[in-house]
């Protein structure tokens, strides 16, 4: 009996809490590229309350304030890495432009109701800022053609990025065996000491098992999850000693062409001979 009363009271209290100011959704990207922009969204439901303010904080420091009673309602504070585009910002959205590494951090939206409740709700999320490489992976050292047992050696390099990129070699669309791979190595960028170039070397001896029908497809893939993925692909050939070139495709083609030439000649010669005979 007593337990049931508590339960009823608890339900009434919870329903009351649900009916007050509520932060519905904080929509903040998890990753953005340097130089880009980010829209931070904060959806709230006043549930009958009157809005006093919407405030935005980065790492605990206020940078934007919307107070409907003020004129103008928007106020922002200069904060390193936080460049607010006022024209695109409102009570529910803040537009950040010219993102830099300093822009990374915890972003918090805090919504407050008017007197007498002064209810305040907030939520926060982290934004990572990535420096994406200027360009895709570059492959150096490959030759167009190899002889059997030649060393196939190449380096795949990616311009500076932050965080470091993940490079991967693919042989005929399958990940290269680990015995073919050396590295990765990283080289800190001269202009950007916080960023690094990435290198990954591929090396193996040319055998017929890697060269399917005399050709091999090599691909270097660069990934910086979740914003960036690019790849470079090339095809290379193997020249085999004559004894190993079983059923060379050229021979068949030549035979086909030769027989079709014979046929054509026959169709021309026969009518000519018939003409002479007549
Ligand atoms: C962003 O950068 C551009 C170009 O440097 C500049 O014109 C603009 O004022 C910047 N915007 C903000 C809000 O800082
Ligand atoms: C590949 O890059 C590494 C690291 O910079 C270097 O030591 C190696 O000599 C390079 N190899 C080729 C084939 O370019």
TrEMBL record:
Keyword Signal: yes
Pfam assignment, any one: ig
Domain (Ig-like): residue spans on this chain: 34-128
Signal peptide stretch: 1-20
Matches recorded under InterPro entries: Ig-like_dom, Ig-like_dom_sf, Ig-like_fold, Immunoglobulin_dom
PROSITE patterns reported in the protein's UniProt record: IG_LIKE
Keyword annotations of the record: Signal
Name of the protein in its database record: Ig-like domain-containing protein
Origin species: Spodoptera littoralis
